[in-house]
Amino acid sequence: MSQFVFDLATPDDDAQLRRILAATPMDGAIRVSLRREPSYFGAAVLDGPFRQTIVARDQASGRIAAMGARSVRLRYVNGEPVAIGYLSGLRCLPEYRSRGIIPRGYRFFRKLHEDGRTGLYLTTIAEQNQLAIGLLTSGRAGLPQYHDYGRFVTVAVPIGAVGGRLTWSSGTATIRPAEPSDLEAVLEFWSVVGARRQFFPAYSPDDFFRPSATFRDLRAHDLLLAFRGRRLVGTLAAWDQTAFRQIVVERYSAALRWTRLAYNAWAAVRRQPRLPRPGQPFRWLTAGLAAVEDDNVSVFEALLDALLIRAAGREWDCLLVGLHESDPLLASVRRRQAISYDARLYMVCWADGESFREGLDQRPPYLEVGCL
After folding, report:
1. Which residues touch 366 (CB under 8 Å, ≥6 apart)?
2. How far is CA 37 from CA 41, 111, 368, in A?
3. Burial (0-12, 13-18, 19+ Cβ within 10 Å), 24
4. Radius of gyration of the CA atoms of the chain, in A
5. Which portions of the chain are predicted below pLDDT 70?
6. What's the pTM?
7. Are the C-beta atoms of residues 193 and 293 closer than 8 Å to each other?
8. Which residues pair with 224 in a beta bridge?
9. pLDDT tens-digit map of 118-156
10. How many Cβ atoms sit within 10 Å of the Cβ of residue 255?
């Protein structure tokens, strides 16, 4: 009998899933863990309306050895809403690695894929995680094909120390916070402007301003709207996820351990993100719902300026902005960066999805960094 059995996680597994996230940090000069506290499933609303968490259980102990998530939602593909999957949260406890769990897990995933919900999945892998990239793109028996779709860049934009107005005009556009009554018009705007990106989510009213919504804890006034006259021309949100999702520092490299305090003193003067103590989370906001008519960089920069002004003077150190390397808006974010984090975006499919993948046009891809 096999040591492991694969099935779908239930709410009874919540504590074990959170322990796995804490025990499997991402390596680098700053070693961090991506947490979902106080509830794994409470944060899973980020994954969209259909989501499954796959687990490998050690039959001898009942312990969960590895996990991964599959979700499916409508996204714009070549301008039309299509069901597209996303693979995330692949984790394996160190003591269970080299046990053949990953290939067997993908065989279980392949059975789930037979529900026909989608033919294509997206996923991101940190560029420095060459071990995972080498394994998952190897084409080993049972694994789907991973097709490189370019670099997805997350930039930590420093937040300054001086607050500002709730309504702001740049000369390029007039910007104000959204109200709940704006949602219908905003959804219509995204159906036109968002659809010019490949994989921009086809959002619905159920994704917003409700406790179980995809954009959990995002309030209407956290979403900024840009207008020219009475015409909506851009959106950008500042999403506080810290009540249910955290990036926790586990360890610094030797060099950073010695220089962290000096860096933080410099950062306080230069208004750069500080480095927390080990065991503490970063103080961050997540930018989301970035959509601008005609990719107008001036309007996007006005939205970004207004968002940073509103966030300044509070507890936040930085704003995380994620865009694909081919996105024309990325250059204006890079000019403001303190640090950036690069991942590879992949399209993942078995043979039944290859013809669909090959039919994609050249629109810049879009992912919601707060939902990764």
Report:
1. 194, 197, 198, 199, 200, 323, 324, 327
2. 9, 30, 20
3. middle
4. 21
5. 1, 160-171, 337-338
6. 0.92
7. yes
8. 177, 236
9. 999 999 999 988 888 888 988 777 789 999 999 999 998
10. 9
